[in-house]
Design a protein that fits this description.
Layout (H helix, E strand, L loop, with lengths): L1 E5 L7 E5 L2 H14 L3 E6 L6 H19 L1 E2 L1 H4 L11 H4 E2 L4 E5 L5 H26 L7 H15 L2 E5 L1 H7 L2 H7 L7 E8 L6 E12 L8 H4 L7 H15 L5 E11 L11 E3 L5 E3 L7 H14 L2 E8 L3 H7 L3 E6 L2 H14 L2 E4 L4 H5 L9 E2 L8 H10 L7 E6 L5 E2 L9 E2 L4 H9 L1
Parallel strand pairs: 1-6, 2-3, 3-6, 9-10, 9-13, 12-16, 13-17, 14-15
Antiparallel strand pairs: 4-5, 7-8, 8-10, 11-12, 14-17, 18-19
Length: 439
């Protein structure tokens, strides 16, 4: 995909006029999806400043890449163990069309920077989608760990990996319980970036269930279809981290990937088992398929132990959020009204849709029925599953911590090909996370 910004209309390419940012983003995805031929877009909708126009253009360029992206089947044919990072460009295909944006509202020297930022964002979202689209037998926990290590090396950032032994020493009972049935080790991957020495740290936590069978509460064949995508939260956090580091964000970040697989064996966690989390709180496991909250709670705790005063987690967590909001809207939970306002401001530029869902003592009380543990991981027969899951996580958020929880089951995957995007992982929420943290 080739991008140009010009002040001059070219007669030999098809010309399109758009009058709003939303129309522009949809149009760009459609043009990108064609993946061939040339087009030029005349920007004639009003903006109050050149800075806002640059933001719209950046998102438009990213949208071209969103539309153009396809997973490369041919790239997989030559993929060997621990090569996912090395082969990520071979596995991500963005086509070869050219699009020219025509505007005279941006200075010539600023155009290259806008193109670079938009392309960078679109390509990194493509990498996250590539990770989500890889079959589980090509992307086990150890493969994701290798990818993160090589990425950190390329960025010049620190990367720690905690294996089963270290996780046991730390007391990460949530992550370890979910992974008990697997023949592979769990992993907590921690990447750090210091862009503002001496300032507070922001924690980014991603759910990385490399495959989710449901455990002993085994999913149906339809329910299990697509469970390779249950690590899209971790992929989204990892690639958000890459973009922000490459852009030299003037903030401090700690990105935490909680990696496991929820499968069945004689050792797998069972209904009624009681586990002790990293926070020292005990949980009765009522539903082994409500596992995402068990890995995230340890990640949220660790982020705060490392000094994070703001924590954002990203997860394909509950089908309740999808049932309530559909496939286009992410369920958002936040414990601070100002943080919600800032998030909405960021989302205005990215075209992604969010709806704030409630946190309330009522939902907390639904989890307080266990006679053996501080609370359960599930509220049987009570409904409001997305809010119940969020309130489970809120039990691990310190009073002084600002917290955003994104439940993205709906938008995380394009379930069948559209005129704007190919089927598979979507890279949901990455654009808004980046914009939010850059504000």
């Amino acid at each position: 995909m080739n991008i140009k910004i010009s002040s001059v209309m070219l007669e030999e390419t098809a010309s399109i006029t758009v009058e709003s940012a939303d129309c522009l983003l949809a149009l760009c995805r459609k043009l990108g999806k064609e993946r061939k031929g040339d087009a030029q877009i005349l920007m004639n909708f009003p903006v109050s400043s050149s800075e806002k126009l640059k933001e719209v253009l950046e998102t438009a360029i990213c949208s071209l890449y969103d539309g153009a992206y396809q997973f490369s089947k041919n790239g997989m044919k030559h993929l060997q163990k621990n090569q996912v990072f090395d082969k990520r460009d071979d596995l991500s295909d963005f086509g070869d069309g050219t699009c020219i944006f025509v505007t005279d509202q941006i200075e010539e020297e600023e155009k290259k920077a806008v193109i670079k930022r938009g392309q960078e964002l679109g390509i990194c979202k493509g990498y996250a989608r590539m990770l989500g689209n890889l079959p589980n037998n090509y992307l086990h926990t150890e493969d994701m760990v290798c990818y993160a290590r090589k990425l950190a090396e390329s960025l010049g950032t620190d990367c720690q990996v905690f294996d089963d032994k270290k996780l046991h020493e730390m007391g990460c009972g949530g992550l370890l319980a979910v992974n008990q049935g697997s023949s592979r080790e769990a992993a907590m991957v921690v990447l750090r970036y210091e862009g503002a020495p001496g300032e507070e740290m922001i924690g980014l936590v991603g759910k990385g269930l490399m495959f989710d069978s449901g455990g002993y509460h085994l999913k149906s064949i339809d329910g299990m279809n697509g469970m390779k995508y249950d690590m899209c939260g971790a992929a989204g956090i990892l690639e958000s981290f890459e973009i922000l580091v490459r852009r030299k964000l003037r903030k401090n970040l700690i990105a935490i990937l909680m990696l496991a697989e929820n499968v069945i064996s004689p050792d797998a966690v069972k209904m009624g088992d009681v586990i002790t989390t990293l926070a020292g709180k005990t949980v009765e496991v009522y539903n082994t398929d409500a596992e995402g909250r068990l890995v995230l709670c340890d990640g949220i705790t660790y982020a705060q132990q490392q000094g994070a005063k703001t924590v954002l987690d990203l997860a394909t967590l509950t089908y309740s959020a999808q049932a309530a909001l559909g496939d286009a809207v992410t369920g958002l939970f936040v414990n601070n009204d100002e943080l919600w306002k800032d998030w909405k401001d960021a989302a205005k530029y990215t075209g992604e849709k969010y709806w704030r869902l409630p946190l309330d003592p009522y939902y907390h009380n639904l989890l307080n029925w266990s006679i053996c543990a501080d609370f359960s991981n599930y509220a049987p027969g009570k409904g409001a599953g997305a809010s119940v899951a969020a309130c489970f996580l809120e039990n691990f958020v310190n009073e002084e911590t600002q917290w955003i929880h994104l439940d993205m089951v709906g938008p995380s995957v394009v379930r069948s090909e559209t005129e704007e995007m190919s089927e598979g992982a979507s890279g949901a929420c990455i654009s808004t996370i980046v914009k939010f943290l850059e504000q």
